[in-house]
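Input structure tokens:
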């Protein structure tokens, strides 16, 4: 689905029924706490910044600069509004704060094999590749 309406949710009252098994995506949203599902036009703009190879990795030749970074370096990037984009087309694009992602990174990465974090200014993107690699690229 990749995108949805402009719905905000908190960890309480987010529409996830208690008592049933939650999907990994629902667990991610619950862990984030505060988030929005991107509107269609936001999701399209975010997705337009993904240049992928045939095998689903960011095509780093199409970005200004890119470098592998460690998980510990992520905290030094600061806090900013961003989009979470999954390689699973059934999952919507999610908008939240980067510091929220860092607090529950395992939950954020669990719903899909590959995940990209794109800042709201479309100036940098972080790829979490399924082999464990983390790459930061400037757009």
């Amino acid at each position: 689905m990749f995108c949805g309406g402009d719905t905000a949710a908190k960890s309480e009252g987010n529409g996830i029924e208690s008592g049933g098994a939650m999907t990994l995506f629902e667990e991610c949203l619950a862990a984030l706490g505060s988030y929005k599902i991107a509107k269609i036009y936001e999701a399209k703009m975010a997705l337009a910044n993904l240049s992928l190879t045939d095998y689903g990795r960011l095509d780093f030749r199409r970005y200004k600069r890119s470098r592998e970074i460690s998980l510990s370096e992520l905290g030094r990037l600061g806090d900013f509004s961003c989009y979470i984009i999954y390689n699973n087309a059934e999952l919507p694009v999610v908008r939240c704060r980067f510091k929220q992602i860092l607090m529950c990174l395992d939950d954020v990465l669990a719903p899909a094999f590959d995940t990209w974090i794109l800042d709201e200014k479309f100036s940098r993107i972080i790829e979490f590749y399924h082999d464990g690699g983390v790459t930061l690229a400037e757009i």
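The two ends are 25 Å apart (CA to CA). The beta strands are 8-9, 35-37, 65-68, 81-86, 94-97, 115-119, 124-128, 134-138.
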